[in-house]
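note to self: dont lose this again. the chain is below, predicted strucutre after it. 183 aa total, dont forget to put it in the shared folder this time
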Amino acid sequence: MSILARLFRMKAFVFCFCLIVISLQFVKEGFRTPVADEFGYLKIADDLTEYGVFTNGGFKASGKETAESGAFFSPIYPVFLSLTSRLSEQSVEAVSCFAKKLKTCNVEDMLPVVVAQIIVAAISGVLIFYTVLMLFENRPVAWLALILVLVDKTHVEYARHFFNRKRRLLPVLSVWLFAGLCA
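---
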């Protein structure tokens, strides 16, 4: 087996490991209803889906029939929300419902968005594993760092939220430092 094929298999294994762990953590924790800033991101995603316009998340209310463009929030996460919610009609309706802050919204209809966020979290786990492996050239230390990050449950918590503050740098750096001290 070539080195490239072994590297791909290892990355796939680490990805699957992260995906399984984060998914199991999500099943245990469950869905959560959006709060605070999440409504702004959901409103922008709804406006992108409905009008094709990146708005300011409802912070500048207007009585116009069409959405006004704006740039209060960074664009990448609302675009991600808009695109992933389009994977099912129920998700589009849930985003619209939450954007309007209605009490009848079903958070479980946001499943395609949460699944996409779990996949992103698993990719982040792979990046953490290989960053530690590159820094310390020690596979057990890379596994230790990855396990510590997954035990922290940061990835599953951010998969359950609908805003863009997706990764905390300090815990990741702490794990790298700890892993380096163990090497």
